Every structure is written in structure tokens, then in C-alpha cells.
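haha ok so turns out i had the wrong file open the whole time. this is the CORRECT one, sorry everyone. sequence first:
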Amino acid sequence: MIGEIPEGWEYTGKELVRTFVFKDFREAFSFMAKGALVSEKLDHHPDWRNVYNKVEVRLSTHSVGGVTEKDLEWIKLL
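then structure:
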């Protein structure tokens, strides 16, 4: 793992994980839209899922099997 674990994120040994909770589905979907733009900019895409007002994000760099600077950069740009 490179760098410090950002506040609010959990490091599982292979990935960074965080569940975001929003007021409603619209806010959750807006968050995902912003995340999609960051993902395209970095060419680095998270594993994520949305259920109503919650978005679970799992970040890792699949090609190396763990967390890299790309994952930390995704968090910073979000």
C-alpha cells in the first residue's frame, strides 16, 4: 500500500473500501456521476454498487492486485 489511508476509508489488505450514505437516491446518483467523470479522466474505474441512498466503493488496481497511487488519486479528485 502506498501512502496514508484516507479518512473514512478502510484498507482490507487488497483494496480501499468505503460506503457513502446520502439523503436520497438522487444525491447518491449525483455522486456516482461525479465519480464516473473522475474515473474516465484517470482511466481508472472502481468497483461500486448503489442501493437507494448508499454507494459502496471498492478501489484497487487490478493489474497489480492491490492499492496504488492511482487509487489514492481517484479519492483526491472525488
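The chain has one domain: 10-77.
again sry for the mixup
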